[in-house]
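Before relying on records like the one below, remember that each one covers exactly one chain. Contacts with other chains, cofactors or solvent are not represented anywhere in the record.
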Amino acid sequence: MTGRLKWNKRRRPMVDKNALLPTDYTPIVREWVETLSLSPKNDYLKRNVFEKFVDKSTVPSHVRKERAISKWLSMEAVNEETNLRLATTPDDTVILPVVRYGPFVEKCRSIIASIIGDIPKSMTLGSFSGGASTSRSRTISSPAEKYVGKAHITRACLDMFDQSDYPVWFGTSPLSLEVVKGANIFTVPKNAEIDRVACKEPDINMFLQKGAGRQIRNCLRRVGVNLQDQSVNRKLAQVGSDTGHLATLDLSSASDTVSFELVFQLLPIVWFDYLNSIRSPGVNIDGSFHDCEMFSSMGNGFTFELESLLFYALARTTAYFTGTKGVISVYGDDLIIPSSMYREFAHVLFYFGFSPNALKSFHEGPLRESCGGHYWNGCDITPFFVRRPIDRVSELVLFLNNIRIWAQRGNSLYLDDDAWPIWSLLSLDVSPCLKGGDIVSSGRFQLISPGKPDKKLSPVAKDRSAPEVGYYLHKLNSIEDREELPITVESSDKIVLGLCRLSKAKEWTWHSCGMLFLEEETALVVAG
């Protein structure tokens, strides 16, 4: 066993039960992947399984960060061009065959207005998340803590933020508001080559942004777009791969290419003014302030909902002018449209500053991909990813669970010959007490396998004290009567310390022989 915990309630060291393995099994897994038999599903796994793998041998973290910021700035150059193009496009410019720009934009506006209305219905639906902000690091950013003490806010947001809308909050625990220029840029891992850029927003801006996002999300449900459910797009992608009638589109850097001018032209003016007031007009990049050409970035509390709304309107408008009937479904930048209008819609997206990802967008052939689901002629070929070295028990358990779930997609009698050897070999290094049960959510903490489970790995967390007033206000804000969608209460009152203990596993739930490998099934019959 390796690693010792420096803190616990009794102030005694604690052995980390997430032990190091005798060796790093990643090379063994790489060799196994390369020897898989030929099939669309196996070939797809080969191409994708190590796409997001990161260790000391891959590109250093500072290089991935530099690449991410450089790409982000290049997207800003695209946004600048888009803003100029849209602002200077005459209404009679032909955007599609026999379709001019003015009527196209007007139709988009009418669709958006019919969904969200001309004005926001409420400006008091805000909430805090547990993420970092410009004033607080991740370790001191629980929602409860953000209701007290110091909070950042931009000038435009301060000018319209009315504390009288929150009498209990500001009567109980007034915040000390500090004006800042905008958000702070940071990066998170994306794959072995490059990071992904996101932004830490000012506290009060984020509070109001999440409220605006919730309003848009509620409104989209009324036209059949449910941003709470990715399974809708996955099912449609499967249908598209089987029939060919539906296309799937994935956009490159979609969140970073929603331009200011696009939002200005398509949203009702009151909505635009409100969102413009609560967004960050720029970001701090390593000490330098950058005025944004994009309207909002990843990290903004309404970016996901806003881009979903815009893409839905653009797709509906394209369908209207091309006379195309069929399903249109949107989940952020995961789009599903009739295959027959793919080329026209791609042209529209390019004109408005977006770029379909050619490697992940499909309108011909047997492959479709959307919201994490990958399908070939109607069969699920969704791969799994090895993201880090398989050098600890938890990483081995995660790999073995992933391979079991992956193997059960499609023809299991055929795939058992590929999956069983590696699974049976590597599972020998998992303690018997961690084996048993078919709880798919076991992840990296309990091995899915026949038998009654005994123990599981549980991450060790340290309680983080939250101010009582802040906790009360957070709970009160979370249970108030909100429109349609429930509020998820994020307590974020624990700090995960990176170590694991053994705890009692959940009740035995093995009930489906469909989860068994052929060899295991035979072994159980013989044992019986």
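The longest strand covers residues 494-504.
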